[in-house]
Amino acid sequence: MVRLVSAVWSPDPADVVGLPRRHRQPCRYDAFVPDTLVGREVVLPADVIADVSDAERAVQALNTSDLPYRGYEAIARLLLRAEAVASSRIEGLEIGGRRLARADAARAADGSSPDEGAAEVLGNIDAMRAAVDDVARRPRVGVGGILDIHRALLGGTRDASWAGQVRDRQNWIGGSSYNPCRADFVPPPPGEVPALLDDLAAYLESDWHSPLVQAAIAHAQFETIHPFADGNGRTGRALIHVVLTRRGLSPRHVPPISLVLATRSADYVAGLTAYRADGLADWIAVFAAATTEACERVAGLTTGLADLRQRWRAAVGALRAGSTTAQLIDEVLPQAPVLTVAQLVRLTGRSAQAVNQAVDRLHAAGILRQTTAGRRNRAFEVDGLIDLITGFERSLASPAGDTAVEPPARPVPRRPGR
Fold first, then answer.
1. E strand or H helix at 27
2. Which of 84, 194, 246, 301 has its CA 20 to 30 A from that of 203?
3. From CA 81, how far away is CA 392, in angstroms rounded?
4. Closest Cα partner for 341 from 109, 116, 140?
């Protein structure tokens, strides 16, 4: 049963040196302990069942239908990149798309990372991808899998000392920074956390509920437990990917559900609050609506990529089917905004001579713009791709799906400059 644990906050004297007296006084608070998940019956009203069905069909369509171009892996990378970079921006890392793309190309070219800020964001992207790919494909997630996700996401950051460690102190959300007595929400006491994580891990192995319902419940339960001193948001977002991938609903592309939830933050907070107050159906409805919207936004991105490909084809003129130039346009260029010739050779499987000839043709047509990557490597920026990706990220942050109609509801990348 859901219960509240009443406790008195007595701050550590070392933590309150120099603080006003009112922040140094003991005070009473109530910590929330959620019901366990294993064996929980879920009964949803007809309208929410319909919302869930619509959302799952949208995810299935995203993963099984023929997209407007053949770059399936490119779509997956773009979506994961947007999610991981948004997590980085929450940490205050404002790195533009062009700067990030050049740093990524430099790292691929010679392993260099002269741009420390961009390198940190790239590390976040790598950790997000690795955590999802690794944990989602394990025979069992277990508590160890949850800890590994957290360890991967925080490793190499300023919070690395906490990576993979369950908290041993009370934490809270909102209110004062000094004590939990006026917090918006106080998660379970640290002594309750191990058993709740065990229960969550067991629930992740089940198939009692549909994939989308399981992802929604697992995410809400994780955020309610708030088992880590920091990094709970990032780990909870990755957990959505893990559930949908493991259950087979999204083997190729997980739509950016959490980015839509972050944009509609009032609905998100209200949904989590309802979940904790026995309003599971309200939370599931919020999550399903965000999923459907995320899929619709991705459809716009794929259309934009298809339009961009057509623009490239028109610029370069007649193409021989199966040529290196055609392969670059149709399959390779959408995969990264900045690429070196060595990368293009690896991605196409063609000879360096064939790739260089194709690059010269694409450069002459204005499809590739020469830049540098790393210490001395010649690289090329793909025409229009950074603008498209940035526009997509910005649109996800607008409740109307267009920042020209309604401004962003959360931090977003600036419009790209040259």
1. strand 27-33
2. 84
3. 11
4. 109
